[in-house]
Amino acid sequence: MTADKDPGFRIGGRPLAERLTEVLPSLAKTVLAEIVSRIPEYGHLPAEELSGDITHVIEQNLRSFIDTLRTGATPTQRELDFLRESAARRAEEGIPIDIVLTAYHIGIQAVWASLTPDARPEEVADVLAVNALTLRYLEVVTPAVGAGYLDERQTMFDDERSARHTVLSALLDGEPADVAAGQAGLRLPPCYIVLAASIGAHPDEEANGVDPLVAGRRKLRRLRVELERQIRGTVLTSLTPEGGIALLPHETAAEELSTGDWSRLERILADVARTAGAEVTAAAAAAGPSHVPAAAKLAQDVLAVATGAGRPPGLYRLDDVLLEYQLSRPGPALDRLATRLEPLNGNEELLQTLETFLRHGGRRQTAAAVGVHPNTVDYRLRRIAELTGLDPTRLEHIALLSAALAARSAAARD
Question: Coiled-coil ranges per the record (predicted)?
Fold first, then answer.
C-alpha cells in the first residue's frame, strides 16, 4: 500500500479499519460459510483445504481490503500477485473461473452485510464513500484473479496440447505410443480411423475487408469442436485451415468396422462441414495404433486421387476410388494411358465436356452441367473421337477414356 492519509471512515461510531481488524478471524469464518453455502463447488472441496488454503486466501483478501479502507489506496502488486497465485491453484483444481470470481464478490457482500446495520445517519457520507472504494477494490482485484486463473489454464492447455501432439507424432511415425499416451492421460483405442482432409474456404475468408487468417482460424475452431463433440474419445489432430490429418478413436477393431460405422462417419463429416461453413473432402482408412502410418499414407493417397479426379466433397475410402487409385500407381502403363489424351492438351472445353460426360453419362445431363446446348455436346464428343481415336459414346471406349483421365490426373499431381 502507498502511505496515503487515513480517510477516517467510521461506521457504528468506530474507525472502520480498526473495527474490521478486530473481528478479522471471525469475519473470515463468516465469509467462508457464506461462500460454501452459496457455491456448491466450494462445498465439495476437502475440509482440510477449506480450513487451510481457502481460509488463508480469505484472510489475506480481507487484510488487503482493510488496508484499502485504511489508506484509500488499492492493493500493491505483491498483494495482487498473491491473489493471482491463489487463482492459479483454483484453475489446477478445475473450479470454473466464474465461480472463483463469484467467491470474491460474495466475500465483499458478507463484509458489507456485517457493517451496514450499524451505520448511523451521520455516517451516510462515509457509507457512500466506502461503497465507492469497494468498487475500486474489486475493479483492481477481479482482473488480477482472472489473469492468474487464465494464465494457469493456458499453461495447462499448452501442456495438454503438447502431450497430445507427442502421442500423435509417435503414432504417425510408427513409434511406440503407450508411454506418451500414459503421460497425456490417454488410453490407446483398439482402432483409429485416420482421416486425411482437404478443407475449402469459408465465405468470410474471401470477403472484402475481412482478415482471412482470422476467418480461417474461426472456421478451423468450429470444425474441431464439432468433430470432438461427435466422436467418443480423444481426437488427435494436426489440422490447418486448409486441411490435414485427424485420428478418430474407435472401440471396434479395424477389420470389424461395419457399414453402419462408415455411414455414421459420413454423417459426422457432413455435420462438421456444415458447422465449419466450408466444403470438406476427406479420405479415411482404419488401423490399429501400430499400423497408423500405413493408414495415414493410404488416406492421403485416396484423398489425392479423389480430389484429382474432381470428386465432390464428402468422405472417400479406397473402395470408392479403386480404379483411379490403381491407375495412379507409377509404371509404363500409366504413362501410356496419359498420352492417349495429349491431343486434347490446351483445349479445356473438350476436356471438361469429356469429364462431365463420363461422370453424368448423358448428353442432356452433360449439356446442363457445362451450360451449353446438347448439340454442342454432340459436336465436342465427335471432336474428341477425331483427335484421340476414342469415342466417348462407344461402350468399349468408355473404360479406356476413364482410365486415361485418371492417369492424366495422376501425372499432373506428380
Answer: none
Last residue of a domain, one of 309, 326, 343: 326
CA atoms of 251 and 233, how far apart (whole Å): 9
**Cα 78 → chain centroid:** 36
pLDDT above 50: residue 398: yes
Q: Which three cell numbers stand for residue 30?
A: 463468516
Let me know the angle formed at the C-alpha of 21 by 128 and 86, rounded to the nearest 5 degrees: 90
| DSSP calls for 34-57 | HHHHH-HHHHTS-HHHIIIIIHHH
Query: For residue 337, what is the domain's CATH number?
Result: 1.10.10.2840
State pLDDT tens for residues 308-340.
Answer: 777 899 999 998 887 777 776 666 666 777 788
Considering the domain architecture, whether residues 315 and 359 belong to the same structural domain is answered as no
Separation of alpha carbons 341 and 352, rounded Å:
12
Q: What is the CATH number of the domain that holds 268?
A: 3.30.70.270
Phi, psi of 84, rounded to the nearest 5 degrees: -60, -45
pLDDT digits (tens, 9 = 90+) for 146-176: 999 888 888 777 667 778 888 899 999 998 8
From the list 304, 297, 299, the residue with the least C-alpha distance to 328 is 304
Backbone angles phi and psi of 237, in degrees to 5: -135, 150
Total domain count for the chain? 3
The DSSP 8-state label assigned to residue 8 in this structure reads -
Residue 194 and residue 148: Cα distance in Å, rounded?
38
Q: Supply the range of the domain harboring residue 370.
A: 329-413
Rounded to two decimals, the pTM is: 0.58
Residues 93 and 201 in one domain: no
Are residue 208 and residue 295 in the same domain, yes or no?
A: yes
Together in a domain, 309 and 360: no
Contacts of 364 (CB under 8 A, 6+ apart): 374
Angle (CA) 231-237-243 rounded to 5° is: 105
Nearest to 93 by CA among 147, 56, 53: 53
Q: Which of 276, 272, 186, 195 is nearest to 233 (CA)?
A: 186
Q: How far apart are CA 173 and CA 290, in angstroms?
A: 10
Tell how far CA 259 is from the center of its chain.
28
Nearest to 186 by CA among 207, 212, 217, 165: 165
